[in-house]
Please model this.
Amino acid sequence: MRALKRVLAVSALTVPLVIGAAGIASAQEGLDASWGKGQFIANENGAGIAGAESSVSPEGVSHADFWIWSDDTGVSGAFTGSGATWNQG
Model:
């Protein structure tokens, strides 16, 4: 039962990552460069997910990375994000 809960938790955490990647893919025309990477694991020791993305578009630049881990001792994680936007006038 615990393994099922871990798989469900990792699945729930993966959905926003997939939606974010779809948003990057549908960026406006013009300058657009993006990179993303994700990883997840679920086994008898725990469950976790990690991801990173960077993008450059006509609106600005951004970078984010995160990780989340869950095991018998609890849940832990971290997030870092940065970005800049500019006006086009």
